[in-house]
Design brief:
Length: 426
């Protein structure tokens, strides 16, 4: 653990924020994991952690807009270090009211001088002074281009969403994606009740899911309720998925894509911890994450293994399961408020994912008993991975029918965007 002296706070906070941003850029790492690894390395106060988190997330969340503002002030290509330092300084200038401009410029110049020398620091100083004085114009742009830049969503994504949902819904989605997400937990009904937890006013009743609670304090993972297994962290939209399958005590259930186990443990709670759940995830390293949840929440009916669920038909005879949950890997376009870095993934990554989703569905079908149910869900709002994927599936299998389906958009309940569909086999 590295200790930091008080007078170095400001420069140190920005240095850490910059290092996290550079690591994210160079290694394409997940922001939350990278931030956590830095918070474990350094001893930081709550306010330092809040500042670093805000600058890192804010810079990534608004990257397209910040680059647009910066562009007229850069005559040549700049290296990653300089570019990131400029973007994060610009973010503080445009979106963090409390910090005076001279302080932002001073800190940026100091960082540049230490790492790259006097010439770079002079360059940073000149570009920031110019950029802070000018107001960018979006007048000449089309409606879609303007939305893309104002809300920092790639143009291909804005166009795709406009085609699927229309402009005004897309605008609401993009704006909601830039708002801080609510802190939400699910009550573990195996150990306690919502009424019991609501006695503490830091917990408040959710709006959308039956067992949901919002938390008004800091990190839910540090609460006594979390550590005792009375609650688990899960967004409200995601909490609708397991009840969609209506699992009953005694059912034999397959959970095809289970890590980190939020829905597996929810299924078990709805089954009163009676019956059997076979849970799989492709990645060996994710299996302990599921096991930790099972232990903490005192769930004992789940058998977890690492396996490729596009080959599950090789493991079981046909017609094995009463119910199947396929919470499929997806483009993640419903969770951009939590994971803004997903916005910048290549658009063609979706084509590959659509093929995998299809293979997973093809493995679910023969393993389901006649009269049994499948819930297919994703945390994306891309219709090609949702409604269209299911339409193609039931065309291939006319004995499957859609009982109900639902899409939740992020602005409706200030929760994750989600799709879920309940299917039944004749
Ligand atoms: C949306 S996440 C599942 C979230 C989980 N159901 C929950 O509620 O905590 C999708 C998961 O699918 C897994 N996955 C991707 N491809 C897979 C495959 N071929 N077989 C099994 N799991 C896969 C990923 O590792 C990821 O953990």
């Amino acid at each position: 653990m590295i200790l930091i002296h008080i007078h170095k706070y400001k420069v140190m906070d920005r240095l850490i924020a910059l290092e996290i941003l550079l690591k994210y850029k160079q290694e394409k790492s997940y922001l939350n994991l990278t931030i956590n690894s830095y918070f474990q390395k350094y001893e930081l106060s709550r306010s330092q952690k809040d500042f670093i988190t805000r600058v890192v997330y804010g810079t990534v969340q608004n990257q397209i807009y910040l680059e647009y503002v910066l562009k007229p002030h850069l005559k040549t290509r700049v290296k990653s270090y300089e570019k990131m330092l400029l973007l994060m300084s610009l973010y503080q200038h445009l979106m963090m009211d409390a910090i005076p401009d001279y302080a932002i410029i001073n800190e940026a110049v100091n960082l540049a001088k230490k790492k790259k020398g006097i010439r770079t620091s002079q360059f940073i100083n000149a570009v920031l002074k110019q950029a802070f004085l000018t107001e960018p114009s979006l007048e000449e742009l089309s409606k879609e281009e303007r939305l893309s830049i104002e809300t920092s969503h790639p143009l291909w994504m804005v166009k795709m969403l406009c085609k699927q949902y229309g402009y005004s819904t897309t605008q609401k989605i993009c704006q909601a994606n830039n708002e801080p997400p609510l802190k939400c937990a699910r009550v573990n009904t195996l150990l306690t009740s919502q009424d019991e937890l609501l006695k503490d006013e830091l917990w408040q009743k959710g709006k959308l899911a039956k067992d949901a609670l919002y938390y008004q304090g800091g990190n839910i993972a540090y609460t006594k309720e979390f550590q005792e297994g009375l609650v688990t962290i899960q967004d409200e939209s995601s909490q609708l998925v397991a009840p969609y399958l209506s699992p009953k005590p005694g059912d034999y259930v397959l959970d095809m894509c289970a890590a980190p186990g939020s829905k597996t443990t929810h299924l078990a709670a709805l089954m009163h911890n009676q019956g059997k759940i076979d849970a799989y995830d492709l990645y060996e390293h994710k299996i302990p994450l599921i096991q930790q949840q099972l232990t903490r929440l005192q769930v004992s009916i789940v058998d977890v293994k690492a396996y490729d669920s596009t080959k599950l038909i090789e493991l079981y005879p046909p017609l094995t399961f009463d119910k199947i949950l396929l919470d499929a890997p997806c483009s993640g376009l419903g969770v951009l408020a939590r994971k803004p870095e997903i916005k910048y993934h290549e658009s063609n990554a979706m084509d590959e994912i659509i093929q995998i989703q299809q293979k997973l569905l093809e493995n679910a079908y023969p393993l389901l008993k006649n009269g049994g149910n499948i819930v297919y869900s994703t945390c994306t709002i891309n219709k090609k991975e949702n409604e269209k994927q299911i339409q193609a599936f039931i065309k291939r299998h006319p004995d499957m029918k859609v009982i109900k389906e639902q899409t939740i958009l992020s602005f409706e309940y200030h929760s994750d965007g989600f799709y879920m569909c309940l299917l039944e086999k004749e």
